[in-house]
Amino acid sequence: MQIYIRNLHINMDDSTRIRIETMIQNKLKKYAGHILRVTIQLINFNGTRGGEDKSCRMEVRLKSNSNVFVENISSELLKSVDLAIDRAARAISKTIGRSRAIKRELLPVF
């Protein structure tokens, strides 16, 4: 699973980047066999003014040529990332479940 992190208007040191990558790997390891790459875009809309302005946009590219997109906005960067990863995990689970159900429907019955 490849992880790409892009940030706009957010000062992020290496320890924060590593922490985010670790969060992704830990929470999505159950689906690692289905994931090609994870792209996260972190945005701080208000800059130093604060408020609920830290956005985490996440795209998960699956091996089944499906994409999962989620976004979460919070006042804290890591909280926003954490909630976005949770939402992505639920969406991945649903997507995998749907593809399995479709494959079962296509199997011939003898």
Number of strands: 4
Poorly predicted parts: none
Overall structural class, as computed from helix and strand content, comes to alpha+beta
Number of helices: 2
Helix proportion of residues, in percent?
40-55%
Strand order of the largest sheet: 1-2-3-4
Secondary-structure blueprint:
Layout: E1 2-8, H1 14-28, E2 35-44, E3 54-62, E4 67-74, H2 77-106
Parallel strand pairs: 1-2
Antiparallel strand pairs: 2-3, 3-4
Written account of the structure:
This protein is α+β, with helices and mostly antiparallel strands. The protein has two helices and four strands, in the order βαβββα. It has a four-stranded mixed β-sheet, with helices on one face. The mean pLDDT is 86.
What is this structure, in a nutshell?
This protein is an alpha+beta fold and 110 residues long. It is built from 2 helices and 4 strands; from the N terminus they run E-H-E-E-E-H.
Question: Key terms for this structure?
Answer:
single chain, 110 residues, alpha+beta, 4-stranded mixed beta sheet, 2 helices, 4 strands, 41% helix, 31% strand
